[in-house]
UniProtKB/TrEMBL annotation:
The keyword Cell wall biogenesis/degradation does not apply. PANTHER family: BINDING MONOOXYGENASE, PUTATIVE (JCVI)-RELATED, TRK SYSTEM POTASSIUM UPTAKE PROTEIN. The keyword Cell wall biogenesis/degradation does not apply. Residues 3-370 form the FAD-binding domain. Its cofactor is FAD. One of its GO terms (molecular function) is FAD binding. This is FAD-binding domain-containing protein. InterPro entries: FAD-bd (IPR002938), FAD/NAD-bd_sf (IPR036188), RIFMO-like (IPR050641). Keywords: FAD, Flavoprotein.
Length: 555
């Protein structure tokens, strides 16, 4: 017998989310992480998408995540200015937590994302504060055994199990065996390398130095509505400032100008002061610093045998729209329920084939969206489009800032209110989704059309009792019906096969996209089948859902 059902290599947000979702499905998990548990998380990701928050809601701690980080009253606006402390010439107004949830706990109107069909709007929260929440949940879970300060060195697929060899900091070896392994161990993934997979894409799209600083002086110098993120543009130096705690912690990105050959040409202190707009008397402490290269790289494969990769181990790209970590959590949201079905015995092994078929095309799509959006900033950050007069107080400078502001506003609302990246993508050509003649609507980074076409995310709505559709669906399959027809044959057959499925009988919502009477929604909230009546032979439909058959199913 294997030591565990699943071993996860890498305990960042993606790995810990995978572990927690597997655990809530009764799966025994080991998670291996080379960092010590006391090592502070860095501030790389600072935005948690709606889809990620929906996953945290299903795990039971979205409120705890939402309450972390910035104070309730701190705006999450995005601004553009010639320096952080200069008056912004662009402001994308986004709500503080108090503004967001001030009206009956529902999203307040008047913001670019107010209309989104979700129980969990986006949260601007640093990874610094997210990881401790996830760590507490992992440490408290009886189904998860964590091995910190332990680095995986080799992954071997034995055919009927997988062995992971690792080593603690004190050189003590660790050897674990499991039915499956998920590598969420970052861009330098030992799991990906063990599988022989290759990154493909664009390796160098720009370089940035990121510095987390601590100072109590900056907040008091702001004489306008404080932003969550501020982009600064000038010929001398461009970058970004992100409020981490709304008080004394600030993440400062200094882009490497096009004139510089490498980071040795960048004066870190001068770059920070120019981006902030402060003089030599301003004091700050460097908490952490990291140089990084913007890339768009996707692994040629996500799976080999019993071993999977996800998150940065499978794809890295420019952090446009905050979608690096969030895409990784979308990976494991797709994978964990499939693994649980196979391990718990109600799904066929072939169900796992659907994971790469579904996620790889979406990863390519999202990475190209992110790259296209970020490249617009890269060119600007290199200083090639920024005339010196931009910072001038003259009428020409004022006019230039106004014209540039219009362009930046139109360019960036889709990035910071990315409805399409959250809700627009769909799975096509999947062997475990029954398609009909209707095509899913197109989407882009900023826009999406609610759709009930199989493969699309089931659009969320609130039930008459005020509860969330997703809360009623729970963590398993859901049969959603808008008619009084009996569904006992399907529910009884599912019970006989131990396939977990919940029936939700609801009044038809106002959403025009729900045109059919019956829908089967998967645990990852994507629609697997729809029709006006259930099939006469429900077993055929259930076979398809769990990867056991490709038989024709009536719509």
């Amino acid at each position: 017998m294997a030591d565990y059902d699943v071993i996860i290599v890498g305990a960042g947000p993606v790995g810990m989310t995978a572990a927690l979702d597997l655990a809530q499905r009764g799966i025994r998990v080991a998670i291996i992480e080379k960092r010590d548990i006391s090592t502070p998380a860095d501030a790389r990701c600072n935005s948690i998408s709606s889809r990620t928050m929906e996953m945290f809601r299903s795990l039971g701690f979205s409120e705890e995540v939402r309450a972390s980080g910035l104070p309730d009253e701190h705006p999450t606006d995005v601004t553009y200015a010639t320096s952080f402390l200069d008056k912004p010439f662009v402001r994308i107004r986004l709500p503080s937590r108090a503004e967001r949830y001030g009206q009956n706990g529902r999203s307040a109107p008047g913001f670019p994302d107010s209309h989104w069909l979700t129980p969990e709007p986006v949260v601007r929260l640093s990874q610094m504060y997210l990881e401790p929440v996830l760590q507490r949940k992992v440490q408290a879970c009886e189904y998860i055994k964590s091995f910190w300060a332990c680095e995986a060195t080799q992954v071997i697929d034995n055919g009927d199990s997988v062995t992971v060899h690792a080593q603690f900091d004190a050189n003590e070896p660790l050897h674990l065996n499991a039915a499956y392994v998920i590598g969420t161990d970052g861009a330098s993934s030992i799991v990906r390398k063990s599988l022989g997979f290759q990154f493909e894409g664009d390796a160098d799209l720009g370089r940035t130095r990121s510095t987390l600083i601590r100072t109590t002086e900056l907040r008091d110098k702001i004489n306008f509505r404080p932003p969550w993120m501020a982009w600064t543009l000038s010929q001398e130096g461009t970058g970004t400032v992100i409020a981490i705690d709304g008080n004394e912690l600030w993440l400062v990105h200094c882009a490497l100008p096009h004139r510089a050959k490498d980071f040795s040409d960048l004066d870190l202190d001068l770059g920070i002061r120019r981006v902030l707009g402060v003089g030599p008397d301003f004091t700050y402490e460097i908490v952490h610093q990291k140089d990084w290269t913007a890339r768009r790289l996707v692994s040629n494969k996500f799976r080999k045998g019993r071993v999977f990769i996800a998150g940065d181990a499978a794809h890295v790209w420019i952090p446009a729209a905050g979608y690096g970590m969030n895409a990784g959590i979308a990976d494991v949201t797709n994978l964990t329920w499939m693994l649980a079905g196979v391990i718990n015995g109600w799904a066929d092994q072939s169900l796992l084939d659907a994971h790469e078929l579904e996620r790889h095309p979406i990863t390519e799509q999202v990475s190209r969206f992110a790259m296209a959006k970020a490249l617009e900033h890269v060119e600007m950050a290199r200083g090639r489009e920024i005339p010196r007069v931009l910072v001038s107080k003259s009428p020409i400078g004022w006019l230039l800032r106004k014209l540039l502001g219009r362009r930046l506003n139109a360019m960036n609302i889709p990035q910071f209110a990315c409805e399409g990246l959250n809700f627009g993508y769909y799975y096509d050509h999947s062997p475990v989704i029954h398609y009909d003649d209707e095509q899913p609507p197109s989407y882009d980074m900023g826009t999406a059309t609610p759709s009930s076409v199989p493969g699309c995310r089931a659009p969320h709505f609130w039930l008459p009792d005020g509860s969330s559709l997703y809360d009623q669906m729970g963590k398993d399959f859901a049969l959603l019906t808008f008619s009084d027809d009996s569904c006992s044959s399907l529910m009884n057959e599912a019970l006989h096969r131990n396939i977990p499925i919940t029936h939700i009988a609801a009044p038809r919502p106002a959403l025009a996209c729900y045109k059919h009477n019956c829908y089967v929604v998967r645990p990852d909230r994507h629609i697997a089948w729809r029709g006006n009546t259930l099939p006469e032979n429900p077993g055929t439909l259930l076979d398809m859902l769990v990867g056991a058959s490709n038989a024709s199913i009536p719509s």
